[in-house]
Design a protein that fits this description.
Length: 140
């Protein structure tokens, strides 16, 4: 039977996934974002895991495998599915965690790289502006 330690091992085998916490419970994170965790809300069943996933994919999982995947009112508004670890296979859990990684990466903000111009470029730029002002100024 699978448990969170199994999910943790499977998750940490994926690129850039690290250990973390969420709401005081053990969790897996990717680029600082929650990937999966032990659900802390009382509405979740024992030996479950909450996994972040696209809402459309969640609906499909709930429809196709309601004995494995479920949702409660607390988790319904969030892009999360609850998984009964006693009912999912190791292979399916690995695939679900991969899907969660893709979802988290798509929803993670893109890093913006800001570059500064070289000092010499700034100096030359201001020299050109001054020369242009002199050329355009009316003659006395």
């Amino acid at each position: 039977m699978l448990n969170f330690d199994t999910a943790r091992k499977l998750g940490l085998a994926l690129p850039d996934v690290v250990d973390g916490t969420a709401y005081g419970a053990p969790a897996l994170k990717l680029v600082g974002k929650l990937l999966a965790c032990i659900p802390t809300n009382k509405s979740a069943e024992a030996n479950s895991i909450a996994v972040r996933i696209d809402l459309e994919h969640r609906a499909e999982l709930l429809r196709q495998h309601p004995h494995i995947y479920y949702i409660t009112d607390h988790y319904a508004p969030h892009p999360t599915v609850l998984v009964r670890l006693s009912r999912i296979t190791r292979t399916d859990l690995t695939e679900l965690l991969r899907d969660a990684c893709r979802f988290v990466m798509r929803s993670a903000p893109k890093t913006v790289i800001i570059t500064r111009p070289r000092k010499s470029a700034v100096r030359h730029s201001s020299v050109r502006k001054k020369a242009r002002k002199r050329l355009m100024a009316p003659s006395a």
